[in-house]
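queue> pop job 88
queue> type: inverse folding (structure -> sequence)
queue> payload:
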């Protein structure tokens, strides 16, 4: 008996984890929406360029929406729950998918979706070596867009080796693994963040090209993009 395919939305930042979760979800369900949750009146995230997110959605041929969270007199959780209920109804969704690996913010998304929509986290608790191996097997092209200088041992020079580099097997061996005792190999504790430039099985023969510079702001170093565009592979 064939399992019923569900209508799924991905909680989407354009990074490696949510994109891998999307690739896994597409095997069994129909991904009909990418949802980026952000604070009211924001322009972009330091780690995850909204302009790049929109190009990723275009490359994958999936509708993308930005949901701004925050309303006076309501908690963050209340705002999330109301937004999730609204998009579930509007898009006739069965499933909300996240790329979460660790329990952050006291299982926030579990509480945000409870009794509203089924939550799926297909890479939950994945071993980091397996995570990286899976990304490389599927030929993810990954750009490290942001790093926490503080979480890299207050080493700005090390942060400069991260930000603007591609997360490749060579980078893992030469730069990431020597830090393994203090740095999560997937950056899951906020040490670094990525954006996906292309995935052959998702991007329909396209990739994202970019120009940008390293910027330091407080404890963070991030890529400030001067141009981004979709081009044929």
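queue> result:
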């Amino acid at each position: 008996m064939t399992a019923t395919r569900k209508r799924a939305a991905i909680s989407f930042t354009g990074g490696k984890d949510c994109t891998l979760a999307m690739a896994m979800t597409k095997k069994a369900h129909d991904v009909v929406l990418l949802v980026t949750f952000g604070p009211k009146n924001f322009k972009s995230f330091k780690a995850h360029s909204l302009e790049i997110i929109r190009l990723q959605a275009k490359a994958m041929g999936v509708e993308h929406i930005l949901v701004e969270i925050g309303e006076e007199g309501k908690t963050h959780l209340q705002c999330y729950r109301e937004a999730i209920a609204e998009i579930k109804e509007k898009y006739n969704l069965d499933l909300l998918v996240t790329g979460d690996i660790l329990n952050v913010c006291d299982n926030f998304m579990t509480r945000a979706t409870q009794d509203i929509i089924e939550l799926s986290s297909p890479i939950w608790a994945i071993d980091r070596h397996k995570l990286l191996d899976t990304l490389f097997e599927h030929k993810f092209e990954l750009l490290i867009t942001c790093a926490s200088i503080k979480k890299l041992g207050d080493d700005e020079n090390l942060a400069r080796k991260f930000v603007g580099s591609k997360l490749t097997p060579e980078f893992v061996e030469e730069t990431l693994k020597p830090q393994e005792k203090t740095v999560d190999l997937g950056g899951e504790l906020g040490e670094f963040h990525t954006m996906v430039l292309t995935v052959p099985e998702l991007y329909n023969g396209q990739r994202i090209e970019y120009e940008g510079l390293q910027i330091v702001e407080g404890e963070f170093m991030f890529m400030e993009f001067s141009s981004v565009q979709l081009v044929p592979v």
